[in-house]
Amino acid sequence: MISVGIIGCSGYTGKKLTEYCSNHPKVKKLKLYSYASAGQDLWTIAPEFHGVIANLPVEHSSDLDLSLDVYFTALPHGESIKVIPNLIEQGKVVIDLSGDFRLDDAKLYEKWYHFTHAAPEFLSEKIYGLADWKETTYTGKKLISNPGCYPTVSLLSILPIVKEFADDILTVSTVAYSGTSGAGKSANADLLLSEMDGNARAYNLHHHRHEPEILQSLNKDGFISPFSFSTHLLPVAVGMYATTNIFTRKAIDPDQVKKVFASAYENAPFVRMRDQAPQLKWVVGSNFCDLNVSVKGNSIIVTGAIDNLIKGASGQAIQNMNNYFGWTPSLGLLPSEVNHVSVY
Fold it and tell me: What does pTM read for this prediction?
């Protein structure tokens, strides 16, 4: 049994973390922290939890109880870096949902995140927690950097192909779509219902900060081919869809490709290979990533769907905690693996 602190409990991902940790059979103690919502209680900042999970006080993020075992940091980019070094130096396990430690090269933060990284020594001391990828290891380090939502669905779509056919790949192009919750809760006129209802648009073309994160993982597995990544907003609040086109130098047997995916995810309970292109409604509200692969000649098309707030953030963070401690990956994430506790 462990004790857990959630720093940044009032955002979309913080609320999901609170729900999962409240029902997790291995979490014996939970403490909630926030900057803006400090001094309130959980049922006030999240009325949807009233009578569902236990009410808890929300304490100020500057007054951390350093006796806890695990801390989730669900803070904006550039904020996690202010609290994580001290937690790691105190010997705590930290699972960070921001982008502050995802990249290996500190110089990339100046280009893609527009700040100078204040703790570059920690970039090599992290686990990049792509929880369903069989080569992710959890030994020897205390900091787990939770992947971004776009990189999660993109890498799960591409890595099996790169791992097996890197030398045969000509180009890879990923076109991805997100619900508006991916931008967080900050006010933004472009995300108003009146702007997005019945609408769709591309954004941050050639400038999306998740592009170097995706390439970083692909390059480690031998990918050196041209890669393009384009992102779009959908008129939905939650959900993420990615279509990846991979062109190879020669035709590849479809059965061989399917075997590659089956082998890659045979022990990944949250990756479901589908016989048809997945739909958002199959995954929204869950920690699943649904994938389909279609092969014709030298063209491979992989379609993937996730819930951006769960598999793309909080659900994967809980899965990383489970993996770190050697627990069942689905613990606390499936109805059969949660602890139902009276809230009265």
Answer: 0.93
Query: Three-state DSSP class for 83?
Result: coil
* Average pLDDT over all residues of the chain: 93
The torsion region of residue 116 among left (phi > 0), alpha (psi -120 to 50) and beta comes to: beta
pLDDT beyond 50 at 344: no
Query: Which residue among 9, 21, 149, 289 is the active-site one?
Result: 149
Whole-angstrom Cα distance, residue 286 to residue 334? 8
Domain 2-147+310-337, what architecture?
3-Layer(aba) Sandwich (3.40)
DSSP 227-267: EEEEEEE-SSSS-EEEEEEEEESS---HHHHHHHHHHHTTT
Express each pLDDT in 54-92 by its tens digit: 999 999 999 999 999 999 999 998 999 999 999 999 999
Give 84's strand partners: none
Please give the CATH topology (third level) of the domain spanning 150-306.
Answer: Dihydrodipicolinate Reductase; domain 2 (3.30.360)
Both tokens of residue 197? 């209802």
CB proximity list for 170: less than 8 A, separation 6 or greater: 225, 226, 247, 248, 249, 298
Q: Each residue of 202-227: pLDDT tens digit?
A: 988 999 999 999 999 999 999 999 99
Calculate the CA dihedral of residues 272, 278, 280, 283 and round it to 10 degrees: -10
What pLDDT is stored for residue 282 in this prediction?
A: 97
- In the chain, how long is the greatest CA-to-CA distance? 63
- All CATH 3.40.50.720 domain ranges of the chain, comma separated, are 2-147+310-337
239, burial (CB in 10 Å: exposed 0-12, middle 13-18, buried 19+): buried
Q: Please report, as a single letter, which amino acid is at residue 155.
A: L
The three-state secondary structure class of 131 is coil
- Known catalytic residue: 149? yes
Closest of 311, 299, 341 to residue 239, by C-alpha: 311
pLDDT in tens, 145-163: 999 999 999 999 999 999 9
